[in-house]
Specification:
With 397 residues, the chain is of the alpha/beta class. The protein has helices spanning 15-26, 39-44, 53-61, 66-71, 91-94, 105-119, 239-249, 252-255, 301-322, 331-353, 361-376, 378-389, and strands at 2-5, 8-11, 31-34, 50-51, 73-75, 78-82, 85-89, 100-102, 122-124, 128-133, 141-146, 149-154, 157-160, 178-193, 203-206, 212-216, 222-229, 263-277, 280-281, 284-286, 292-293. Helix content is 35%, strand content 28%. Strands 7-6-15-16-17-14-18-21 form an 8-stranded mixed β-sheet. Strands 9-3-2-13-20-19 form a 6-stranded mixed β-sheet, covered by helices on one side. A 4-stranded mixed β-sheet has the order 1-12-11-10, with no helix packed on it. Bound molecules: adenosine-5-diphosphoribose (APR) and P-hydroxybenzoic acid. One of its GO terms (biological process) is benzoate catabolic process.
Length: 397
């Protein structure tokens, strides 16, 4: 077995692992990233596309914002389409100047991979059988296999950035974790197409036949979603059926503007809320999807990964530079305060805008009335806006 050494061993080369790796590397803290998949596979995944200001700032701080700043689309608002009526949520005015950036996670990942390669920092792709050991000691280590050889990686800390199905969370004894979960009885069928977006801003539509979302990746690439039953099969949705159903769920004048075209990606994702507490076990820290999942309705998944990264990065900086080891045990509580607020908002947006097969007439009326109250009240719209642009990051002191 070959022995390697690093300061922070990072499991997973998704946005969490790559962004943490870049920030630490820039600060002179050594990292090694272990990724189960190939670089091409990681790069090919189509995921979210709305970045909060906090994440945009963090990408700038990490020195990986050049393309985002040139090609990303700043959105100062979005539309809610409720039973045929459009309501504009003016993010900028309602939040005193904040907005979001439309820039795909695929592009964020590409920029981070390029920056890491340019910096000469190592990511081992197709690393298998990753396992973390002695996490409760001051000398944790990680074993893995790579290109037919077995390695032992010695480190100070392990960052579990390996997503919902990763090994990091599973290496914590079950009795040390509490799991909070809600599974929704529907999924999102998503389509990517090289067609101009239907509208300059995102449109979130509530309709009796189910929720629909009109999003985009650029001025020439659209991303649309439809609420579908959780057990729906992709084969049941040829492009034409998708476009027809989308038009049905949008207000008439908007639907008329829809430009259709062949899909370049189509997939169904289940919706889930999930949080594990605490997000730390000894010298192992969980970040991003490894610790929490939100339904995509509030566009919070990627942004929560960024706030976890910011928190761990700022703590580790103070640990290495100022010996502030007292901060390590604060990681989980700091993250979870923000995580739960985003969980609440994502759950609320999901509950308000989707059709629930089990809902009785009373619950439907309550949801309808809650939504009407929110959109007709300045305070209500402000609440939606300040959550959508992203709640502030806590200072690390
Ligand atoms: N060993 C090594 N790597 C692993 C392992 C393992 N056992 N298990 C999973 N991985 C890798 C995955 O292949 C993936 O590349 O960890 C990475 C995790 O990346 P993501 O799932 O993208 O998670 P994260 O980096 O936390 O990104 C935040 O939030 O809502 C979502 O769309 C958003 O995917 C984004 C996520
Ligand atoms: C997306 O563009 O993929 C997207 C946008 C907003 C959401 C969810 C997904 O709320």
């Amino acid at each position: 077995m070959k022995t390697l050494k690093t300061q922070v061993a990072i499991i997973g080369a998704g946005p969490s692992g790559l962004l943490l790796g870049q920030l630490l590397h820039n600060a002179g803290i050594q990292t090694l990233i272990l990724e189960r998949q190939s670089a091409d596979y990681v790069q090919g995944r189509i995921r979210a596309g709305v970045l909060e200001q906090g994440m945009v700032d963090l990408l700038r701080e990490a020195g990986v914002s050049r393309r985002m700043d040139a090609e990303g689309l700043v959105h100062d608002g979005f539309e809610l389409a409720l039973d045929g009526e459009l309501t504009h949520i003016d993010l900028k005015t309602l939040t005193g100047g904040q907005s979001v950036m439309i820039y795909g996670q695929t592009e964020v990942t590409r920029d981070l991979m390029a920056a890491r390669a340019a910096a000469g920092a190592v990511t081992l792709y197709e690393a298998s059988n990753v396992q973390a050991h002695d996490l409760k000691t001051e000398r944790p280590w990680v074993t893995f296999e790579h290109q037919g050889e077995t390695f032992r990686l010695e480190c100070d800390y392990v960052a579990g950035c390996d997503g919902f199905h990763g090994v990091a969370r599973q290496s914590i004894p079950a009795e040390s974790l509490s799991v909070f979960e809600r599974v929704y009885p529907f999924g999102w069928l998503g389509i990517l197409a090289d067609t101009p977006p239907i509208h300059a801003e995102l449109v979130y539509a509530k309709h009796a036949r189910g929720f629909a979302l009109c999003s985009m990746r650029s001025k020439t690439r659209s991303r649309y979603y439809l609420q579908v039953p959780v057990d729906e099969s992709l084969e049941a949705w040829p492009d034409e059926r998708f476009w027809d159903e989308l038009k049905t769920r949008l207000p008439g004048p908007l639907a008329q503007r829809l430009v259709t075209g062949p899909s370049i990606e189509k997939s169904i994702a289940p919706l889930r809320s999930f949080v594990v507490e605490p997000m730390q076990y000894g010298r192992l820290f969980l970040l991003g999807d490894a610790a929490h999942i939100v339904p995509p309705t509030g566009a919070k998944g990627l942004n929560l990964a960024a706030s976890d990264v910011s928190t761990l990065y700022r703590i580790l900086l103070k640990v290495y530079r100022e010996g502030r080891v007292d901060l390590l045990e604060k990681y989980s509580a700091i993250c979870l305060r923000r995580v739960w607020k985003a969980e609440r908002f994502s759950w609320w947006m999901t509950s308000m805008l989707h059709q629930f097969p089990e809902a009785d007439g009373f619950s439907q009326r309550i949801a309808q009335s809650e939504l009407e109250y929110f959109i007709h009240s300045q305070a209500g719209r402000q609440t939606i806006a300040e959550n959508y642009v992203g709640l502030p990051y806590e200072a690390i002191e």
